[in-house]
């Protein structure tokens, strides 16, 4: 039998803790201090993000949902192989609850496409939940989840014959700094052939006040989401952050197109981190940078694609041009 190479498995709890310790030690030693939004998503953080997606101010999720609904037929045509006999794999990187993807999955099933849905995540638990909900809602769908990092999953799938359409929705690409974004896209593109397709969601530049409001909602859910990172460090690294003396702060810079989020102490303080066996000093209002959420323009997306050796095959937007789902190919 042809044994497929084993996917790189998700980190063990021990490895994950070591990675978090290293990240925090390095991030808080830096000037300005930084912590990565990658660590927002513990159970509570994931729950808060679900709440963010339902906020009146947080437009990206519902806009992309409407966009996918509106353009489902054209999107399916752009992604599926012309030859219905050809094997077809729909890969999704960071599927989450799959709510948006189900629009496409349902459309493909309804129009008789033969394909396999391959959700990819480093968290097995996240994939189990998604697979269970898909068995309920789309019982005829073939699902083959892969627990691995994105690059490993793509290299694994490259060995199988047929069209691969790789989805990276939700403007998750906005979390990367420009240099990292370029490297990420190159890693995605490397295992692809000219027969494959990428579908990437980009939040677009628009009224800066409107963008800013999406990251500073009046109910304070985004603040709780950001501050939850400190609660996590208190619990997992035996830190003693006093949450009453920390605030969420965010701004949008229309020149760079970046929303930047910070945690700020309202007074000077020293915080002990037990797991690191050391303390860190914070000045009053010293920003700790926790997240970038970049917003894009059509020229920026064209350049980004070209620099990764890709071409824009199709560019879909919603009626207000708030968001774009872009089909890329070699
Ligand atoms: C999940 C990365 C797309 O940047 O808009 C939402 C995360 N942060 N509110 C985003 C987030 C604050 C979100 N992404």
UniProtKB/TrEMBL annotation:
Residues 21-329 form the Histidine-specific methyltransferase SAM-dependent domain. SUPFAM superfamilies: S-adenosyl-L-methionine-dependent methyltransferases. Coiled coil: none annotated. The keyword Transit peptide does not apply. One of its GO terms (molecular function) is L-histidine N(alpha)-methyltransferase activity. One of its GO terms (biological process) is methylation. Pfam families: Methyltransf_33. Keywords: Methyltransferase, Transferase. The keyword Nuclease does not apply. It is an enzyme of class 2 (transferase). Its EC number is 2.1.1.44. This is L-histidine N(Alpha)-methyltransferase. It comes from Hymenobacter canadensis.
């Amino acid at each position: 039998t042809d044994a497929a190479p084993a996917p790189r498995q998700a980190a063990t709890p021990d490895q994950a803790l070591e990675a978090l310790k290293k990240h925090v030690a390095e991030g808080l030693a830096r000037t300005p201090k930084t912590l990565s939004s990658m660590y927002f998503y513990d159970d509570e953080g994931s729950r808060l993000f679900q709440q963010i997606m339902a906020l009146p101010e947080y437009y990206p999720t519902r806009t992309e949902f409407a966009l996918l609904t509106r353009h489902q037929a054209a999107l399916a045509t752009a992604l599926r192989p012309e030859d219905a006999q050809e094997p077809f794999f729909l890969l999704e990187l960071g599927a989450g609850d799959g709510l948006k993807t189900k629009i496409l999955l349902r459309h493909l099933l309804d129009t008789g496409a033969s394909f396999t849905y391959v959700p990819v995540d480093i968290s097995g638990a996240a994939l189990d939940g998604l697979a269970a909900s898909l068995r309920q809602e789309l019982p005829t769908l073939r699902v083959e989840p892969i627990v691995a990092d994105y690059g490993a999953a793509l290299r694994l799938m490259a060995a199988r014959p047929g069209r691969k359409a790789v989805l990276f929705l939700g403007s998750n690409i906005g979390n990367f700094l420009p240099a990292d974004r370029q490297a990420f896209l190159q890693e995605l593109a490397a295992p692809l052939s000219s027969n494959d397709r990428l579908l990437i969601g980009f939040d677009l530049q628009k009224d800066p006040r409107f963008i800013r409001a999406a990251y500073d909602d009046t109910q304070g859910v985004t603040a709780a989401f950001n501050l939850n990172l400190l609660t996590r460090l208190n619990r997992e690294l035996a830190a003693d952050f006093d949450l009453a003396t920390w605030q969420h702060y965010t701004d949008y810079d229309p020149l760079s197109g970046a929303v930047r989020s910070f945690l700020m102490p309202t007074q000077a303080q020293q915080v002990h981190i037990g797991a690191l066996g050391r303390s860190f000093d914070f000045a009053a209002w010293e920003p700790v940078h926790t997240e970038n959420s970049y917003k894009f323009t059509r020229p920026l997306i064209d350049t980004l694609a070209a620099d990764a050796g890709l071409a824009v095959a199709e560019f879909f937007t919603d009626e207000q041009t708030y968001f774009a789902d872009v089909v890329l190919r070699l």
